């Protein structure tokens, strides 16, 4: 166990004591609770210091529209869609689910005010802000509430992908596994077209993950690790002036200097079959156990290496993306979430995901004997999560 690990009694939060939460959960069974609503609003109603860890992936900046908007005023029959680029054709709503995933490029809802009927768009979703600074500020507000809800020994595991400022057409180009239908920088099904902020140039890599990590660090979080999620089969990109994007970040942040972290639960196999063998060798042992003089390791340390059962987990995690057939986007891969759950939450503890999406974090937590609280703005995704939670042994192949 890590020196950072501290005693962690069973969490006080349970499905029976959500009386402080004024919004009733949409799903509440066997220690798994899912709320439908705005993350910040619902987080503010959760009690202090009751969650062991938070594992989440917020909507990426300037990537897509998840279909949560409502319209105030205007024509109730209006579709609020901008004209199709490059020709006429039937309009189809851009939303967060359904069967319209092959809608042609260029069809997207107006943002702010519909220029056809004058209706005002009302939307709480994160990711549609006009600048990176506005996006990061909203995330800092959300994770400030997460910090309050976390126990003092709690951790935050934050997955974020990056975005590119649009090239030439003044629109954002943001390749990501969360946008499998993106074919150009001009929008498309569920996608958005964000004007390039003054702080960026066309084709700039926006640096969203690190902007967010540094802002959270400044807000009081301990920034402990930048984990690289390496993707063996990344989304193809039609670019010839830079490498294809094949990674995202998973940041490990902590509420306090000392925090719960179970290193033994996620140890990796030794890099060499000889590890633990007194007649063998290897760089790992030399890293872990200091040499004495110029000849070999200190007495007995190979035996201790055998007892460890593996080496400390590295910060590059190679995990394939895991598309889910009910969703139009690639969901969190369970194999990416599993080490976060095992290292960040004790058995019987509570995992929080304020951007629950299709509910994979809650599913992995359930599979590993943890409680979970999920918050999701889109009611279609909440229904999807409820259907998935009713299944058993979803991720037994990971164990």
Superfamily (CATH H level) name of the domain at 27-64 and 129-170 and 201-265 and 315-398: Vaccinia Virus protein VP39
> What is the share of helical residues?
10-25%
Looking at the structure, what is the overall shape?
globular
**Rg measurement, Å:** 23 Å
Number of strands: 13
Assign the CATH topology of the domain at 27-64 and 129-170 and 201-265 and 315-398: Rossmann fold
Largest sheet: 9 strands, mixed
Describe the structure.
- The protein has 399 residues and is α/β, with parallel strands linked by helices.
- Among the domains are: 27-64 and 129-170 and 201-265 and 315-398, Vaccinia Virus protein VP39 (Rossmann fold); 269-311, no CATH class.
- Helix content is 20%, strand content 16%.
- It has helices at residues 39-43, 132-149, 208-218, 283-288, 301-308, 334-344, 360-367, 379-389; strands spanning 27-29, 32-36, 51-56, 70-72, 120-122, 150-160, 222-230, 247-254, 316-318, 322-323, 330-331, 350-353, 371-376.
- The strands form 3 sheets. Strands 1-2-13-12-3-6-8-7-9 form a 9-stranded mixed beta sheet. Strands 4-5 form a two-stranded antiparallel ribbon. A two-stranded antiparallel sheet has the order 10-11.
- Helix 7 links the parallel strand 12 (350-353) and strand 13.
- Residues 6-19, 86-107, 167-189, 276-306 and 393-399 have low confidence and may be disordered.
């Amino acid at each position: 166990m890590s020196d950072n690990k501290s005693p962690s009694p069973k969490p006080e939060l349970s499905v029976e004591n959500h009386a402080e939460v004024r919004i009733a959960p949409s799903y509440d069974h066997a220690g798994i609770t899912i709320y439908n609503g705005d993350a910040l609003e619902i987080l503010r109603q959760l009690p202090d210091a009751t969650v062991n860890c938070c594992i989440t992936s917020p909507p990426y900046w300037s990537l897509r529209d998840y279909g949560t908007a409502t319209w105030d005023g205007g024509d109730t029959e209006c579709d609020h869609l901008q004209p199709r680029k490059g020709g006429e054709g039937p309009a189809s709503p851009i939303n967060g689910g359904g069967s319209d995933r092959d809608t042609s490029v260029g069809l997207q809802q107006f943002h702010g005010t519909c220029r056809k009927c004058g209706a005002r768009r009302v939307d709480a979703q994160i990711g549609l802000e006009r600048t990176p600074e506005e996006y990061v500020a909203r995330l800092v507000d959300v994770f400030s509430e997460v910090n309050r809800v976390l126990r003092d020994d709690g951790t935050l595991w934050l997955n974020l992908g990056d975005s590119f400022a649009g090239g030439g057409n003044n629109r954002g180009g943001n390749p990501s596994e969360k946008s499998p239908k993106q074919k150009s920088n001009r929008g498309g099904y569920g996608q958005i077209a964000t004007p390039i902020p003054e702080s960026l140039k066309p084709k700039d890599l926006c640096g969203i993950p690190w902007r967010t990590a540094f802002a959270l660090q400044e807000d009081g979080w301990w920034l402990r690790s930048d984990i690289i999620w390496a993707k063996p089969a990344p989304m193809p990109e039609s670019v010839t002036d830079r490498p294809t994007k094949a990674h995202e970040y998973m940041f490990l942040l902590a509420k306090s200097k000392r925090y719960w972290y179970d290193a033994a639960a996620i140890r990796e196999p030794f890099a060499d079959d000889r590890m633990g063998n007194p007649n063998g060798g290897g760089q790992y042992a030399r890293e872990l156990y200091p040499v004495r003089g110029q000849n070999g390791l200190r007495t007995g340390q190979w035996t201790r290496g055998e007892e460890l059962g593996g080496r400390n987990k590295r910060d590059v995690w190679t995990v394939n993306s895991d598309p889910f057939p009910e969703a139009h986007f690639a969901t969190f891969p369970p194999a990416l979430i599993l080490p976060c759950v095992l290292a960040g939450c004790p058995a019987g503890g509570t995992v929080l995901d304020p951007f629950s999406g299709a509910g994979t974090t809650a599913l992995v937590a359930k599979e590993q004997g943890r409680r979970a609280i999920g918050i999701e703005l889109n009611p279609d995704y909440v229904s999807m999560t409820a259907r998935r939670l009713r299944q058993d042994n979803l991720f037994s192949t990971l164990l």
